[in-house]
């Protein structure tokens, strides 16, 4: 696929995504986190726990820890339930000062679409899976992680499971870039929207 093709496809997905960002985030809450975010990949042992760890660290460092809950799950993770992340993912994250070894895999549940304000897929397959399972009128909650890193000109954080350490590092590079972009949107759009809904 050429860079031009990838850019065109990214712009099409981007145009579909932008209107969702301004919508109110979830049901009103009187206590606890104002915003709950769930990262979703396939098995919840490589990419989504890495995203949980990376974004959770950014949230904590920015002082938003009490306001934002960060978790992860897998669309096909039932057989992985209770397992720790892949050791290669743990090692890659640890080399960058991020600890994900205590996370345990779990499968996506129907209730997650109600509990979480945003569900963020690591690739297009899981994005489409989330949309297909999402209750009516909740589709605005579903996003692709790489939408938050347009400079990468890609929609995918490729699954590194079948590869070596280099693929885990590449996945982490993309996740870190997108997590930084996501934090900007959380601060400027999603948290204020959640606050307005709670106040109303």
Features of the shown structure:
200 residues, alpha/beta, Rossmann fold, 4 strands
Order of secondary-structure elements: HEHEHHEHEH
**Unreliable stretches, pLDDT < 50, 5 or more residues?**
1-30
- Mean pLDDT level: 87
CATH H-tier superfamily: Response regulator
Overall SS class: alpha/beta
Question: How many beta-strand segments?
Answer: 4
Give the CA-CA distance, first to last residue.
47 Å
How would you characterize the largest beta sheet?
A: 4 strands, parallel
Strand content: 5-15%
Tell me about this structure:
By secondary structure, the chain is α/β, with parallel strands linked by helices. It has one domain (3-24, 33-199): Rossmann fold. It is 46% helix and 10% strand. The chain has 6 helices and 4 strands. It has helices spanning 3-21, 47-61, 87-95, 112-115, 124-133, 165-199; strands at 35-41, 68-74, 118-121, 142-144. Strands 2-1-3-4 form a 4-stranded parallel sheet. Helix 5 (124-133) links the parallel strand 3 and strand 4. Helix 2 crosses helix 6. The model is unreliable at 1-30 (pLDDT under 50).
Question: What is the secondary structure topology, with strand pairs?
Answer:
Blueprint: H1 3-21, E1 35-41, H2 47-61, E2 68-74, H3 87-95, H4 112-115, E3 118-121, H5 124-133, E4 142-144, H6 165-199
Parallel strand pairs: 1-2, 1-3, 3-4
Short characterization:
This protein has helices at about 5-20, 45-60, 85-95, 110-115, 125-135, 165-200, and strands at about 35-40, 70-75, 120, 140-145. The chain is of the alpha/beta class and about 200 residues long.
